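Re: the request from the purification team.
They wanted to know what the chain is likely to look like in 3D before they choose a buffer screen. I agreed to run a prediction and write the result into the notebook, where they can find it.
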Amino acid sequence: MSNKTHQARLGEGIFLTSDVAEILQLPYSKVRRWMIEMWDSRFADKGSYSFGDTGNRAVNFYTLIEFFTFYQLRLKGVSAQKIQRAHSTISRELGTPYPFATNIRTDGKEIWYEYLDELVNANGKMQMDFKTILNPFLHKIEFGKNNLAELFYPLEKSRNIVVDPKRQFGQPTVNGRNLRIETIKKMYDGGETKKNICLLYDLKPSEVDDALRYYKRAS
């Protein structure tokens, strides 16, 4: 799969820079800088990870997950240079332009990725390591059989709210439903009670609470 094919595709979601910033709770300026300086410049191979108008760029679900992974790796203390090398190595070995949307691991110094049911060090030496020595750090991501990310859960300790690229173009929805949580927020802000929202959409109180909590994260 060539990086030249990055574009809006059915089932892969469409996320504006502002969407990515809101979902991942990151500064808009940081997301935009990563998009331009890292993914569209350093990571892309004669192509672009973003699409759309110059002033209104967007990415798909896999790139959103890569942004999240990149940020988590930096929080773990992995250097930007090592991350860039790992992105190139894993992309080449797994044959995917979205290596950070696969189930990778880190101990804060090195980066590992899964290959043939083993963990492989991304330092280019193809050194196998035991899975038991590392724990997955991407606990908000659910991976599919192809080892690519399928779902993202933006809230801590809850899976009531999900980002699913196959539903509502990737906008946050109630898990297992096609209901955008933005709808719940607008109804509540308009004066509707939580109880009535639950009755209207056959929701659990915790689902309504989490939908509203999603929008309170930055407040």
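For the purification team: The two ends are 40 Å apart (CA to CA).
Please add any questions underneath this entry.
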